[in-house]
## 1
Amino acid sequence: MSKRMLDWIRVGFCAALYLAVCQGSVALAKEVDWVATSNVYSNMVLEELAKFTPEGAGGLGVDGLDEEIIDLKADLAQRSIDSLQRVRQKLAAGLKKETHPKVLQDLEILIKAVDDNITSTELERAHMLPYFNLNQTIFGGVRGLIDPQIERDRYAAAVVRMEKYAGLRDGYEPLVDLARARSAERFDVDGLVGPYKGEVLQDLERGEAMIAGIEELLAGTDLQGWEITYSALAAEMRDYNEWVRAEILPRAREDYRLPPAMYADALKNWGVDEKPKVLIEQGSKGYMDIRNEMEALAPLIAAKLGYDTNDYREVIALLKRDGAIDGDKLLDHYHAILGELEDIIVREKLITLPEREAGIRIATAAETAASPAPHLDIPRLIGNTGEYPFFVIPQLTQNDDGSWVQTDDTYVAGSWTLTAHEARPGHELQFSSLLEGGVSIARAIFAFNSANVEGWGLYAEAIVRPYLPLQAQLITLQYRLMRAGRMFLDPMLNLGLISPEQAKQMIIEDMAVGESWAQNEVERYTYRIPGQATAYYYGYGKMQALRTQVELALRDDFNPLAFHDFVLAQGLLPPEVLKEAVMNEFVPSQRH
């Protein structure tokens, strides 16, 4: 199974979307003929992929798969390739038969997704030693079934799933044994590159939090009789971690850099269609333009607040100091900020909002260990019965004296931008539009990449920025500076043009980011998700360019609300396909 396939089933922004098999259209879509036709083809792909990732299918609401688990049986890579090649033939036949332009667009999306998956699987098999972070896999499998938005009668399936993970059910081997076998069978293959040592060490360090997190999830329910199964599974997971320490860690690579072919493939899979050196040039230019804006804005804030400095770095540090939010006040604060943002959106007629409130919650300790950054928790997109996305804020810890450990996400000036990105008008609104407006499966799942999702999130920050307090405007620019920095630091690190220490120093000193966030950034570029971080500024640039072209074409007829509503109604289209839809459908419809 390729990383591309795993990305398809991973919920969250540093993770993609779960897969599902369904009949009909996504979620609450109003059925139309072309959507129904398109979804027939999407189901062909989903039926094959769900055989390998049934946890993901259940994550989107497919009945009957809650008790099933990931396939790590023998000959996994070739079986997944054969499966995808079979379905590709069916898609190619459809491309010759269908005539509706949107169905043809969706078929192209599906074929590209299948081809990318096959390519990634072949590259990984040729270059990489298989390694599985089972702590996160198993925690995610249990967490996917125990959630306040999931029906209580589905919770019991989590125990069955755990029994299968542990090999306690007839016909099932312990998942840890299968993972060991998939790695060990490739130990003697010449030329394979092991996982990065730092990644393995961090996975091991966080493993116990994942194991404890499973127990915490179960203990928070009224389920009975799970303790024996949990104890057996937890013991296996701990044994597996020791095996990883003994067998994988010595084979791990000291150099974080991927083979060049793997890095190029990663960029493509995240939706970035530029070569690394082009990204470096574009990101560097954007970085300087943004920094110039910050240098002009910082003195205005300093004068307003009485700060004895005009340096944007020092002004940001003072805003963090003076605006720190305690952990027990985070939820109320972010709800209040969201309300003010919604008032701006309505007053300025930026975009149409859902009638319901957006969800915001604090992560558990285990969730915080698994994903230490703020993110959107996406519900099932298939068979949704009213569940909605949640903006999830990592849990803060307290010092012995009762004070709260602060982060770059827990101060007032920064909370505006973060809420705009993750909630409204950013990701929460983006995915709510999929659930409440409805698009084809191809546009909700297979078109997904970081460029179209994170590009919208960064664009969402930009459209509300003019209406924010000056302090929040500065932090919006700081976050944009970070995204431009990602676009050149990520490829520079992976080309060996800069060291991790130099990158971290620049992030801390020039981008005014705290040590913890800076460390997470470097880990992200080097081994967590190489290439992904470039997609933010890349996708943002595509959105800004598209808007400019639309304004040029429409002039006085340009309506931001209509433009934004149309963009979201298209689903998660790749930038070039979105541009085609906007210029050929939206622009003509707006001319008076």
## 2
Amino acid sequence: MSLLSIDNLSLAIHGTQILKEVSLKIEPGRILGVIGESGSGKSITAFSVMQLLPYGAECSGKITLAGEDILSRSEAQLCAIRGRDVGMVFQEPMTALNPLQTIGTQVAETILIHKKVSRAAAMERAADALRRAELPQDRFPLSRYPHELSGGQRQRVVIAMAIALRPKLLIADEPTTALDVTTQAQILKLLQKLVVEENIGLMLISHDLAVVADLADDLVIMRKGEVVESGHADNLFRNMQHPYSRALLKASGHVPERTGHARDTALLQVRNVVREYVTHSYGLWGTTSQFRAVNDVSFEIRRGESLGLVGESGCGKSTLTRAILGLEDVQGGEILFDGQPVFTHEHANSDVRRRMQVVFQDPYGSFNPRWKVDRLVTEPYHLLERQPKGREKDRAIAEALESVGLNETDRHKYIHEFSGGQRQRIAIARALIIKPDLIILDEAVSALDVSVRAQVLDLLADLSDRLDLTYLFISHDLSVVRSITERVLVMKAGQIVEHGPTDDVFDHPKHDYTKQLVAAAPALPDDVAGGRSHDPISGSLV
């Protein structure tokens, strides 16, 4: 008997059809990968298992968990199942955790809700769950708060909460999207270890085929609320029949075409830059120390070039970015843009600042939801000495939106009316509105589906060729960096440990850290697509 069986599940919300006859099965000790774009129905299918559905949702079909008919259970019975029989790991650990409570308290909360035990006993079981999630108490005491942990460590706390009561089924919804490649590999390995050691079933939801390639025993590919293809992972990867499945596979290794070439003149020069922060330890014997986030970093970006910057979280990428943008001064070295210093008299040089723009990772979080698109894209106008008005402003808005594939009429909409890919296009339009020379893309495509990511990369390549743009592309996704950049810098602990042409660095890494990054990158299986294999970094057929 299957651990989880979903048969012909259909779901409508206020009469709108969301799921159409979805069927899938998960066996104990096996991993089911659920693949599809945003809006394909992956997450709502998982929420249907726990009946955590929005008001107005109506389900038909059958959901059976360990022999229990889920759809016939009362809310009280469902509350007993959630957390005890089914654990959930969410995409963003910081929003899944309470910043005001210690990690021990949060893991113990699940135990106290379902078990009649003392608080001391619950804390002991919480410590055991954290140990199984590879957060031993000698290094990560129960008294730690979420902000004291890294992104990967916070995700382990969320996993500990999910497995505290040793559930039969674990649902992981995009658990590694925001993590760098080495941390992602560690989290995926931990999930696989838990499945094997505790004989639980795992539903791993992802938009990226490569992420689940080495992990899943079985695959389900969803599109617009329907299962378009399913089967054993190895067989499905090698014999994809549905056009949508093939399109996802092709998009995973997409490389945009570029016709422009970098020139010899340097646009940005970073020379021996040092950025330090003062840290304090409080208490009777409190001390003050210096933390060097960027340590003697030097490089340059040529006009028309696309330069990649990769490294794990905490390596100093974002600190360096803020210094380049003139948001933070440096304690040593200098940053020159087209020969002019970014900082003059301890203030950002306004003449330089208006020639640089940035595109952030989360387009929704970087916009004011109360503003319409026309006001959002013209935010950078505050950098100009003379701001366009009237018809000139209208023409600039229309030109920016149309340059990224949107319509001029979209200016009258709010940001929540757009999809994730469209929001990122609006973010790019905002960066283009004042016609900058350099655009810094900070994890600009990491949260996008593979097909949408391919479209945005094509857009960036086209804009670079048409508008003679220069890019600094910051990402933890090595396949993306390889597809869009000519040169790459590898950063670790505030220093550039390796640099060179992108293909050379990824094909023949010299530094041990670079080798670790390359080895940790998710890879599609060998012998896919008619007997050929995918390169683990580029995703291209070789």
## 3
Amino acid sequence: MGQAIPNSSSPYLNKLSPFFAIALAGILYPVSFPPFNLEWLAWAVLVPLQISLHDLPPRRALWYGWLSGTIAFAGTVTWVITAMHQFGQVPIVVSALLMLLLAIYLGLYMGIYAWGYAKFQQKYPNLLWLGAPALWVTLEFVRTYAFSGFPWALLGYSQYQWLPVIQFADVTGVYGVSFLVVMGNVALTSFLVWIFAKTRLPSIPIPWAPITSFICALSLILVYGTWRVHQQADLDTLANTLSIGLVQANIDQAIKWNEAYRDETLQRYAALSQQAGKNTDLLIWPEAATPFLFEQESAYQGKILEIAKDTHSPLLFGSPTLRFQQDGRPYLYNSVFMMTPEGRVTARYDKRHLVPFGEYIPLRSILFFLDKLVVGIGDFQSGQGPMTMQVPTPSTNNGPRFGVAICFEVIFPDLVRRMAQEGANFLVTVTNDAWFGDSAAPYQHFGMVVFRAVENHLAFARAANTGISGFISPDGRILTQTSIFSEQALTGSLPLRSLSPTFYTEFGDIFSWGCVIIAGVLLTWCRFAAPISTRNTRSSPT
């Protein structure tokens, strides 16, 4: 266990073209996620890159990892081209270049990981099984917040369908699953490198540390996860439930704000609401469902009131809210409204985490030449106030509480956690994924919701304009989901909170901060430690 694998001159390693390995890792990354759902590939996705880093200087490893990461994220966020070109009227060449710039930025994180991997391999190879996953989580954690944050396609999300292995996200968040997957990649890489090296040094010992550490961690996590899934199933049968109707109207983004289609849009919502929400406890429409500003259009406002009355159900719907600065300049909130069956608005939630370049222009004084990709009046602003609201009930003023994550917000674990911490009994997310077009993004977006349910042990209802809409149980089971670009109405029952808040809900990203500390300490040690080969030479009796 204490002996490092030789760092040089394996003919088998030399036969593996580094550029082939870099490209292979980059290509495997996006297919590990929806809609391909080859999640088993995630457990080996970094292996080609890590093998190519063997005996490589950290600076060169940075470039290898950066190129591999750029390929990986170019394949993951291709939907950016659709959003900008098809709906933002940005020329296709410019859209592709902007997507590539985003991929280059995201690829830098994998480059830094490769640099750190090479450092650990050079200085502390026996701690690679701990240092590499900790560094990966640190970088994902930074990506969640840097430059407003873009935690899309975190590696752990690839496992959204493997329920037993994702249950410990109720302690660590999605970052813990990423840690485990990278740990598996390191163990597999160590084993393969040992096999290659053994052809020249038959006496070299098996790298027990990474292999046994991973096997033990995975075994414990599977035991915990299997127990948790069975426990949650039992609790769900005993829990109070809420009947919810979801409307997926499938309104084409190209005509969404065209006044000529307002009546047709409302007729579609009215018909689907009759199917989905007749006498339910809550009827949910998607983000920005109304093709007008609800508070500003009294005639069309009356039509929404009629739908709520006809269905005899409380209605949650999305509509922008218009406000004015002191100097008269307009701005918007991306809002959802809660309306009683009698037509009374009881609550409003304004989106807090806005989409850069979609709902506002960051660094506007510098990027004054850019415009938003959305149709609206002025810039959107971030909301304030409570993060949860109550379901109106005729018999009591103490209806179930829930939080609403609007579109982009649901990919931020801590934001949804704060909704759960505020006392939510279940969670809702509403979105307009029409911006993504027919791409992988709606499937990737939906898969992330699974983790928000598991992290907080709260059931989720998701209403999306063009899909995917559906229901998710507190243990992450997908109960029902629609197909994209289809007109559908769903009705289902969701269990209300039946457990005390999870560790993650109560304490947040302690695990991730722990990884930051571990990675920081090990990288600091690497700065002062001599390479392993030098240390072995100095300690040699010869």
## 4
Amino acid sequence: MTRLFDTHVVVDWSARSRPSPARPSRDAIWWAALRDGVAEAPAYVQTRAAALDGLEALIRAERAAGRRVLIGFDFPFGYPEGVARRICGSDRGLDLIGWFADAVRDDRDNASNRFEVAARINGLYDGTGPFWGRPASWDHPAIPERKSDRHGTDHPPETRRADRMAGAKTVWQLAYAGSVGSQVIVGLPALHRLRAAFPGEVAIWPFDTGLSAGEAPVVLAEVYPSLLQPVAHAARRDDEVLDSAQVRVSAAALAGLDRDGALGPLFAGADGLTGGDREVVAREEAWILGLGHEAALRQAADRSTFIWPDKLPPEGRSPTARKPVMRPYDKDPSTIRARAEAAIRAEARLERFDPAMRRLAVGVIAACGMVEVADRLAFSPLAFDAGALALTRGAPVLCDCETVRAGIAAQALPAGNEVIVTLGDPRVPQIAAGIGNTRAAAAVELWADRMEGAVVAIGTSPTALFHLLDLLDQGAPRPALILGFPPGFAGAAESKAELASNPRGCDYMLLRGRRGGAAMAAAAVAALASGPAERET
């Protein structure tokens, strides 16, 4: 099995009602990240809002670099079977997450209405409950102080299937030692925010993916650091908060398994999870990543060779902006570019390219770090000139996702060219339902009035490329150039093969096979932006 993710992050979430202390403490928000196997000092963040800002920045940076990201959160992603339908009229976990996103108010100072939301849910059941656990001085009479104070005839199960297997606490306890109920209430909206911030790129496992890792560039998964608590205790440094050690150890275990090609089975659930249980878990209850694979997790954690920096970053700063603590490295942009280009030209097979296409190939290789992609680049004879001339004449660049647009330096485009992404258009969901296709494909429908003579850059979605070709078959206006760089294991290679075999009268460039990514598509646009008159000699 191959590696699934380039970046591995584990987050210890918090339901504190006020900012955590400035001095790192327990029961706050911690996360640890390993990027391409390089460990970073754990981040300590005082508020949920600052944590989400930092995680969004991390995702944006990782996607711009073409890396695939796994982020684990330490709270349940769902409730026991039947709860979703009682609360929101649907048995889909994603619908319940959306309901919480609408119902929960979570301010930037950590003040939230989580007890009001819990009381509202209690009102949907007979008697008092199922939520319980509130400080005696808090005025929420619909929520009992103790579990034994509850009464009613139709309460849901106390735990999910995963919680029973893991021996985890009930999702209904809102306060006191070991409670997770409040974390879930303020955590589900956080998942919704990250998924909504990157349409089509962030998936919530297993609701979006089924019991597999799926193909989304970013996957959010439920984790349970207590599965590795003995290892975390042993790995804990002097005066280190246990929460910090737990996220370090958990992230290292996941990255280690992935490095060895052994992470995939964890996404399939436990061996004993079969039949209807699998359906309920994948649709509604969710599952704990690694549950049922504890031995493999512990072995990976025990043999971890990742070296973690000691220094904590300033509160609220993204790991992407943290002060380096590793060996000296190049910092001058011109030196970095020169060294990278020299290495690529020495190692890659570039003989078949003319000078302009050679420069484009070097840019694509630099964007992904794999010299072998030079052998997989395919293009029509006039592709470079067609794309460069179109940009010189002011043609727009049509992108399938925000990540491609983010990678294009708009100021470097030769004619102030407009860079267009329609994936976030509010009409897209309805169009997708109407055509029976993905949102990425539906977004292509909105290109019709700008497609004639445009440069199309597809760096994420095979269905966007397939649908573009469908529209061309139906007589849609022809772009000047189609850049086909969608990655993945379902449709990526096939969509690019279809473009190469029948480009519908358009010039094209593409990367054959499963590899691709937004960074490579953006690098191709950057090479075209220099124009046909400035070719390398």
